[in-house]
Amino acid sequence: MAGHWAVGSAKRVAGLVAATGLVLTLSTGARAETKTPPTSKQTLGPGLVVERVHASIAPPVDAGDRIITLVRIDPEHYRLRLLTKSEHGSRTAPEWVREFDLTGVINASMFLGGDQRSTGFMVDGERIYQGRVNNSMGAFLAWGPVDSSDAPLRMFGRRCPGFDLEKIRKSYQVVVQNFRMLDCEGRSIAWKDSKTYSIAAVGVDKQGWLVFIHSRTPYRMAVFNEMIAAPELGLVGAMYVEGGPEASLYVKTDAGEVSEIGSWETGFSGASNNRFWRIPNVIGFEPVEARLPQMDDASGD
Description:
Elements: E1 39-45, E2 48-54, E3 67-73, E4 78-84, H1 85-88, H2 93-99, E5 104-107, E6 122-124, E7 127-130, E8 139-145, E9 153-157, H3 165-171, E10 172-180, E11 197-205, E12 210-219, H4 221-228, E13 235-243, E14 248-253, E15 256-261, E16 281-287
Antiparallel strand pairs: 1-2, 2-3, 3-12, 4-16, 5-14, 5-16, 6-7, 6-10, 8-9, 8-10, 10-13, 11-12, 11-13, 14-15
């Protein structure tokens, strides 16, 4: 799957621009050890695993717990849904989960002012929530294959071999565009943006599982991208979906709960945020419907 992942990069709406270079340099101080430390894991259900990794690089701001949370979701057990303000209004992450009977949600993308449409291309079948392709963004997450023999979800990159958005649109019902964080080979991309912020991201791992990623502790994206590119995490692609106080991740099952709230963003008034914000567009997931048991033939034949 890594061969289908790449692009050109950038960052948040108000002028946060990312780099396309692949060499990471830290603006101040020596590079910290980047080997991923041991990970704690919790199974919340079949095909649903939460990992909490202690960030291997010290943050520039003392906020959060320095934990990167990854929720791995097996598409064989869970179906994805795209929910938007244009159809349902905006809600906090827990409200999206509760009111739509979902297992979990994360931000789908950054959004524009006014109608709060996605900053990148966003379609679901005939429903076009944002029909304009953002040329600064190179990550495309697709799910809902038209042909059942295709993978249930895939992440594509504009500059990777064989990338063809028209073909992707014909092959998958849902396509969501965002900024890329990893290149075609799963290596980190060094964004030039010097700001720090809490981060919500969506990735795909070597198993083909979707991965919701969250860090309340703020980082420059160049540093964060390097940490999630660690081989131990097994990510082959990742896209940035939101930052600052709006970055939200919420999952709830009978076995436990994941409740991650964004906090910091450089120069943002909500830097000390301790509550979920209402967000307009989310990627949610719910259990695949159980197949009805096959009934015995009662005819006697």
